[in-house]
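quick one before i forget lol
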Amino acid sequence: MKRLVGLLASLILVTVFCHPAYADRDGKHAIGVWSLKFSGGLDKGQAAVITDMVASEITQMDHTMKVTSQADMEAMIDLETRKQVAGCDDTSCLTELGAALGMEFLVAGSIGKFDDVIVLNLQLINTRHASVLNRLTKRVQGMNVLATEMPAIVAELFGRQGGQAKIIGAIPTPPPASSAQTTREASALAIKITQYPVNITSVPSGCRLFVDERFEGILPIYGLNVAEGSRLFKADKPGFDPQYRKIKVTGPVDLNFTLSESVQNLTESTEWFGLRLGGGNWGGGGELSFFTVRWKYFFWEILRIGAYGGGGRNSDDFMTLFGGTLGIPIHLDAQGHHEFRIGLGLMGSFYRETITRTIKETHEKTYTFPVQGSYDSYEGKESSFVKTENSSHKENKREATPAFTMSPELKYVYHHSSHVAIEVGFQVLAAVASLPIDDDKSVTSNSMSVEIADFDNDGKLEQAQVSHVYREKKPSRKLPTPSMVAFIGFAF
């Protein structure tokens, strides 16, 4: 156990020559007012103002009391000693410290704010007997009301009656002590104030450390002297959930904090860049994404570009994409590490694809007789007849066309941290509209010729005039073939 005799040497000397134990030379009660701990929306400045109000009301309440603030008490000791006793705020430690500084009584406590309610906790400590004489808790609506009621609060703490603090008055003031007695008592009390070295690290590094709500520095810290007793350690860092440790310090301590990123930081941070690789019936390829802005219930992938190819009817078929994605996240855990994303990509695209189409043909021939001579010589016989033939054939054609593509997608995302995410999923790339190209739906041609044909089917060949009409029916061009793509990727 490391004792603070050396570190409190200056404190003892001040006690000997300036502050006789427990009572002022004029017979006044020496009362120290320790700075109030603050929490719940109050800052250090507000807590200091309220502490001063308490000290002022004690002085005005009873002139037999000599009030010393924490700042005045700390001014009595050197800088190194102040650092050593910085974490002293429990009853036993305050009792020992107050007695060592010649205080007969100490007033300590805390103040917090919850909504509009101010909660003030005060305790009156007798350092000579190491006991709490009185404690109270007051709840008031706002700082103005607290300032108005402060005289009554202080009076209640000291049990004021008939213009005198009853609790203090009931304890007789001891006679002035000799310097030798003062030295012995102060030394005995100072020896009891023990501190131990504490080594504190954190993951990530750079966290702020608070001991009993007092800022101590940036982690890691090695050899921080902390007063003996129950201490509340806190580490925090922007973007991470703070972590608290209640430790009873009875010797040297090694302490490590591992902070988790805050849910908001994981679920609402911007992803600046992403890469996905995948493949489907159009072949393989990938996409890049930039500036994915994320909110709790919505995300917007501002820019997305990609290309796939090599897997169509020909190895040089390909598609390119340019656009963005809107969607909603579905968070799967309270920590924000796992989520599904349902999105819809809206993109301009360019396709180069080989398409096979079926062409339908119709040949219609009209035979007319005779070519020469008088029609009368063929009286009673048919002068013409028609023959029709239908056929079809397939045609492969490579087309390049711009289009508007919609891409519904579903993917699972694992957030390793706010900086790195891994994703896996699938999407459908489907063109819903394309620009027209020059493509006749039908072709008709006419021709005239003279052929030898069987006029009346009796085996007699005659010369006939033939009118030939040819019709070719081309189907309208189809939209580019949709593609199903499975992918894996990451974002940061």
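fyi The domain at 266-491 is CATH 2.40.160.20 (Porin).
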